[in-house]
């Protein structure tokens, strides 16, 4: 099977990019349910807050049809200067953007954007070419069809991009539930953005505090 | 919206039919995953035991390719004489079968069989024609394609058949978790046949007995 | 095609029921993505607030595995006394619940609950039997499989239940964007619960305020 | 099976409605591929031209996020005055719209719009209530999810709405390929809007004019 | 649940219609895999041979793009005069066709054709209107999309058409495996057209003739 | 993108393997429709006849539940001695099988079998390990679920197996429609096993011989 | 993660191939909706016009069932001599075709054709073998099943082919919206071939020119 | 195609890991039907018993929401000390776990766990990094969506992990049905966990013992 080197995300080596996640472009995304996708892009943005990562936000011709970044992201990161590209499709063709990435001094980039096959993939490939490790949060990048998404993700994989879920990014960055940030900080995040887990945590809390055993429950294996 | 009369299953009025659920015919069923379908036919058979219903088992030419009823069903109901049809496709064309149904004295029939579009549908339509209320447990009837299943279920619905899930049958028969059978008898059944619920019940039991609260859990909404 | 009478929801005739939407039962729902379903149940709960409808919340054995109602619902409706059923599967078998429904004095019931095939369907059928108009918000009821959901929705439809989306409920209740509640109250609701629309509204706002035309845009048809 | 009366579309009895097919609302439609849906709404609009039907176009708050009707529709029907509803969700609540429908003097309405569960369904139900025959072109109505679309179509069906394809509408209106409009007018329409058929017609034309038989072809059955 | 009358196919009352199953139109069918659909249309044609039913074949403008009926059908039924419609979309608008149906003296029509939403549905609705029982073999009618097929099948169902599988048609006509035609005639048919069953029958044959028991097999339940 | 060497199938270098395509095992295959899969395994077997390839047939414990090879294959290849493995799961562990492969003197193996994840994948990996080029005809290998099939195909791909369709195998072996075998031999094969193409060829033949142009056809682009 | 070199499309280095996109073969394509696929092949052909690329059109036995290239392509490229292959399946086996590719002097080939698993894949692999960079526009290649398409795309990927969407090709070639061609030329193209984006651009234009803010819109986040 | 070395599972070199398969986490798994997944995790656990492999069980914060290992696993392996991780997400970060793996002295790890993208993938990548061969039983690892599962499996594949089915693991470990464990031990296992095969084996047993040939069966090919 050959040798393999597992490069893990390290919260002190990582930066977060929010790429072309714009209110107009949102309407082009049809590979995920709109509710599910909206959740995913807000969860992606939250990663910077949780793990105190440097954050880069960039937009493409935002006064045109692509529209602006959601205001919530700007409020979350008031000190981040949005790199407003006036024409470059691939953010790496924009000098201000490249400088912003380099200025972070980080070697691991967590990335998501709209559209998966263009904005996300082009930048991911350029970052790989420039020697960065790239973790593409696939849940927070959107495409016009599932077919296009899957081919774009395969293209990134072939370039050594780690195509990963939101929870995988959190897991690699957190590493241990006893760390800070750890369980105390993450459970509220999961409750907002990962309700499959959040509801299990709520149900468990209630069971510990007030739960009673029904007839039949205690004879289960 | 017009008037509607809700006829509910009543455990004292109901009989259970296991129709052509045979080891050879099992291989024709491709509208459900094989594991899921095996679970559903055993769950269906269990209904008679749980609610103490009269049970009728019938097979079609069982020494031929259709094969026999699973032995477990015969062991569950050693006193039930299997109606072994030598040729009739529609069980209602078989006098012994009709007599067996009539002998139960029941007016509500819970039914499942292989194949949905032939064995189950034909009998369901004949039962409706004969004035019975029919509850077709759709999870425990199998077809060669999903397309065929859906059209068959629609055909039954048009005849006034209630096309219902296993859990809906249990819910209508049990009515109240405090009854007998109720929670005490049903949780072990769910643990075997309805693991989505069984695992929640197990997790809750453990939480009540030994659960602890993790940092972050108690600040959830 | 025969005659047809369109009975529309009327905000002065309608009551809202939140049925068995409990933190433990949430984990049984697998016919919708968890994020999408969580959004739907909160949107359903919001309907009472938006249109000032009488609200009835009921739970089934909530100290057991089914767990409690999400706290947010209790906070939204502090004056609503939760009907905590100790055993009845069909809420209509519970006298306190029936009285609560009757006490609203309404003839149109908007309903959603977990699980679609049991809690939602049983109550919907009983309400129809009792003469109520029933609007089942299909997005906010969950089932263990899509197959089970679809059969349960068909069963309700056969009983004259209107199986409708969240947006259809809003549309029938609001009737005119110029009403109160109307556009002013609903856009923020859509932004939270119906982001496909919310993002279009945001993008449009930005275009009106700061939008510029890109080369090529003005020569579109 | 009971008696059945087949009411067919009749080109002298029919009117066409283009409802809320607006450039902003287009982005909410995710139950069809965007290319497929764009094709369907233009094909729907074309029906009026082909069969010389009275056409009614209505929009909902079109200077807001919903946006305007595509210009092509306005150019196709320069004499049609768009009924610009300022607030009514259900077009039947708008007097100008009702008058426009009544002014056609037609009893059969061919309808499509955005969104299926709200604009299309509400009007379809109201039209049925008012005694009209309704043919809902399901390909040209869009919803945010397939699940919502299917429930909305079922709701319309329960009200006696004919939920039909574009080609079924054409077939009922044309009746005979030798009529006018018939093959001569329709093949160019199919070539634009129904390419599965258009390409077969093109290939057949070429074969008649220049086709040669390959070895092996003439020994086919 | 109301009363229901089950009208069953009766081989002495039934006629078979092969409608517009033409080599050019075959290419429009994309709701089934091409191999699966080819199998279904040949199986449908075979029904007449098996049960000695009167057969009616009709085509629409067959020298045009729609193309001819497969030669195999003509060879199976050399005495059937194909009703070659020169323009009528709905076969019931063609006098020769109506006369052919009436000449059979049968009251039950088994039908399939291309396309489901036009040729099959229009004729099925006209036949229902004319008082016939109609069994639409859904596997042998094809549409351009699954979405179109499902709406067309629902439309037929609403008119009292029995939308049924090939095997359901066989089962209703055969009634008893001991009849003629029965097992002796049908197993070879299933082996050709219903391989899920054919292969089970082959495997069983081999097991009876030469099968041996492997270690472990005899301790199964 | 690095260098790439395209190794093509060469009919003088290739041998065909039919692996564990047995009548009992057929019933385990649920990742393809049964009709579609039966077609694919017969098409696969035909490859040896068409291109005069050495053929190896092997079975696993064929008197047990796995059952025998379909008789048609034995009749097609009366001179091929079936390698009847008494226990080895991986055919490459059976010396007689290895010798049979080596005796062909070929370096390119075309392979399909039941089940994809076990019989096909194990042999494919062993053949790659032994230095053979391997073309796995994915249509003619079957698995119990689509999920299992996809992972098995990916596993083979990672080992350098060419996972290809039936038509791709034919295309690489034939190379030119003017060769022998070429169009003359292949069109009848496609008519039987690849009806999407066969029906186009039939329709084209008819158009050349008897086709006429309908009004409207000649004004298409 | 190893090193990666991102080779981007460069409009001065690229040529466009339209391969076997023929009116007869169109009918074999069933992995995409026919409307969606027709759109994709016309969009692919447009690429040459937009970016002024050398274009090569080739067909396979075009007077036979495969049929001719759509006339629109010939009209778009009146100076391109179609390479009419009389038998070679793999276009690279045809000397005239190879010469045509070489005559372009380009090193980057953008390719699409029918069928994906044969025409597209064979040529793509040969081009890779010959040292070309290959961008396969997956939207404009068609296969008989999705399963076949996916395996063919994976095969190309394993050979270093970039399997990319139409929009990704445009994005790599255009690079900057301010270039020529850029926004001015591309928006009309998107309006025709990429309506998800075109409709957003139209809606935005209208909002800038005539949009008004509805109550509620300005209080969105 | 390059050289390939097939490393096969060897029952004397392999150890089994059951990772975070906990009663609370079970509720997060929505990429498989709950019944199917429950079956898969019990089948995975059984592998240690069947092949007498060293087994390692580990859990993550099991008194919290994740819940405990199912009791059945503890009873199957009473001598296995569960490695109860108090916080490490990646089990390889836990020294006790690493020591447990090393103590087995095995070089091949068979692994499954909840969730696929986090627990399973992180450990699999770390094991590959540490030089182990890894066989990830994909059926027994669960994720919240299919999309997440597929990307996680692709990530593991890129690291050289063998992503395999339960039956593939059994096949590689057993190698020959005549071995011990072999047919005698495995058929009962398949009957419980792989019913598609178990039912074929049962049907075959019955046919050998009591089967009779029906008219028509012996004339099948």
TrEMBL record, chains A, B, C, D, E, F, G, H:
- SUPFAM superfamilies recorded: Isochorismatase-like hydrolases
Q: So what family is this one in?
A: Belongs to the isochorismatase family.
Indicate the segments forming the Isochorismatase-like domain, all copies: 14-165
Pfam families listed in its UniProt record = Isochorismatase
Signal sequence, start to end: none
Q: What is this protein called?
A: Isochorismatase-like domain-containing protein
């Amino acid at each position: 099977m050959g040798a393999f080197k597992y490069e893990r995300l390290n919260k002190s080596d990582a930066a977060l990019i929010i790429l072309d996640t714009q209110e107009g472009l949102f309407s082009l995304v049809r590979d995920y349910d709109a509710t599910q996708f909206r959740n995913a892009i807000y969860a992606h943005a939250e990663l910077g807050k949780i793990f105190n990562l440097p954050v880069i936000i960039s937009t493409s011709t935002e006064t045109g049809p692509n529209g602006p970044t959601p205001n919530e992201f700007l409020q979350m990161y008031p000190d981040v200067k949005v790199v407003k590209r006036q024409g470059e499709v691939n953010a790496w063709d924009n000098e201000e953007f490249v400088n912003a990435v380099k200025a972070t001094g980080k070697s691991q980039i967590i990335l998501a954007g709209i559209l998966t096959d263009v904005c996300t993939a082009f930048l991911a490939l350029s970052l790989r070419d420039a020697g960065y490790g790239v973790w593409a949060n696939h849940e927070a990048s959107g495409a016009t069809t599932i077919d296009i998404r899957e081919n774009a993700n395969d293209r990134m994989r072939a370039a050594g991009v780690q195509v990963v879920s939101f929870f995988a990014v959190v897991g690699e960055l957190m590493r241990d539930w006893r760390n800070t940030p750890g369980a105390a900080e993450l459970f509220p995040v999961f409750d907002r953005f990962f309700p499959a887990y959040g509801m299990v945590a709520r149900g468990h809390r209630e069971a510990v505090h007030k739960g009673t055993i029904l007839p039949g429950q205690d004879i289960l294996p």
